[in-house]
Amino acid sequence: MIERKFVAQKIKEYEIQEYLSSSLKNVGHSHTKMVKTPLGEKIVIYASRPGLVVGKKGQNIKLLTTTLKKRFNLENPQIEISEVDNPNLDAGIVAEKIVDSMEHFGLNKFKAIGHKVMSDVMNSGALGIEIIVSGKVPSDRAKSWRFYSGYLKKCGDVALTGVHKVDMQAHLKTGVVGIKVSIMPPYTKRPDDIHIIDRKEQEQNEQQKAGGQQASTGASEKKNDDAKKSEHLESKEGGLQRKIQKEPKKSQSKKPRRKKNENQGIKVD
């Protein structure tokens, strides 16, 4: 029973994402996340142009909340919009850009569009990119054109987790054209990454670490010595105060001095 609940929740999330991607066009929509909160369902929309998603005075968000309530039976949906940091590294935004440009300019400039998008993605710091355009491009017979650059993983766990893949369709007069975009961002951890360390650099780092440890030990020893000196002085002052309190006060009365005899010390025959 619990498994069915999880499956139903995932199906609902997928349906919501499909509806948002179809309704939010030309806004740089990347993906959506659904999080359950005590107040209700929280839907986070990631887009490159959040101002177009919001609309004038929040009209688009109001429409989205009402449709989500009616269509998907959500109690209290809360829509939150977050901006994508680097849109050129997001496969969904890149694929949407290619679709928009092809629908606007047609298939006559599909090569220029592919090369321009590929150069923009590589200049933004991506490790590799692959764009596959399939369909009646540019002749009546179906073909597939491939634009690729950099380093891209095709198999293994890195290809599943570290590579962003998106499939989209461009509806043209000649027919439907399929577009597949695969991007490998720079922060993916690869198993074949090799970092060569220079011996001189390693020795310098070790010396710096040793110097830092010595400095820290010297500073700690100095602090301990200062603390001991202060404790010794405080103990001395405390001992003196105790001695002063114990000793009795001397009387201020002075004994009368005896007058010396002038004839003292002189022999008389």
Summarize the structure in words.
The protein contains seven helices and seven strands, in the order αββααβααββαββα. It is an alpha+beta fold and 269 residues long. Among the domains are: 2-84, GMP Synthetase, Chain A, domain 3; 88-184, Ribosomal protein S3 C-terminal domain. The strands form two sheets. A four-stranded antiparallel β-sheet has the order 5-4-7-6, covered by helices on one side. A three-stranded mixed β-sheet has the order 1-2-3. A hairpin with a 7-residue loop joins strand 4 (128-135) and strand 5. The longest helix is centred in the C-terminal third of the chain and has 48 residues, at 199-246.
**Spatial separation of the terminal alpha carbons:** 141 Å
CATH architecture of the domain at 88-184: 2-Layer Sandwich
The helix count comes to 7
Strand order of the largest sheet: 5-4-7-6
Q: Give the overall average pLDDT.
A: 79
Fourth CATH level, the homologous superfamily of the domain at 88-184:
Ribosomal protein S3, C-terminal domain
